[in-house]
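Students often ask why we bother encoding 3D structure as a string. The short answer is that it lets us treat folding as translation between two languages. Here is a chain of 222 residues written in the first language.
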Amino acid sequence: MCGRYLLSYDLSKILEELEKQWGNINTEEIKDYSPSFNIGPSQSVYGLTEDNQKVKVKKYNWGVPYSNFTMINTKSESIIDKKYSIITKFKPCLILSNGFYEWKKDKNKKTPFLFAFEDFSMFYFLGLYTKLKNVEYCSILTTEPSPLVETIHNRMPVIKKTPNEKEWLSQNLKSFNNFSLFKPFSDNFFNKYQVSTYVNSTLNDSPKCIEPYIDDQLNFFN
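And here it is in the second language, the structure alphabet:
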């Protein structure tokens, strides 16, 4: 799954990257953006969608609320098998990120790990969005894990790096059947390392979230 991630670029860098990758797109909705090292469900997030064949930045609430649960993630397989008819009412989007966290479960302990490119460059999660009561909500698509992620968790977000993802933005989910778009992202480009449990709380939002974990006990004896 994907329950926490980061978008730590400052606004000028995001605008520069978007212009470089997508050309002239509507970025009006990202003007109130601020960097975050610890984005959690129910918070505001930013992504791309296609409107009248033009790409624009949109602001969403992360997690689609229903009466008994909030859909922060959606299994990509469910789009193909049409298991949930509600999904056909959603529209595709790309959610901006430059890293995500997963927790490794070991008995009663959960250890956080960060997955990101070595240079923390920006990429996209494939997502879905819908409007409920005049508020737009999104959910992040997940797929089978790559070997790197599998050591920590049995699912991972669907990740893309380049503007070729416009193929996703133009999809009609009622007839979509291109499962190859949901393949796990290659491990050749990602780094993984353990971080501190400081990241466990979304109240903590600073560069400390992405600092590699250092075992103080080991330092004491070295």
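Translate back mentally: The chain has one domain: 5-221. Keep this in mind for the problem set.
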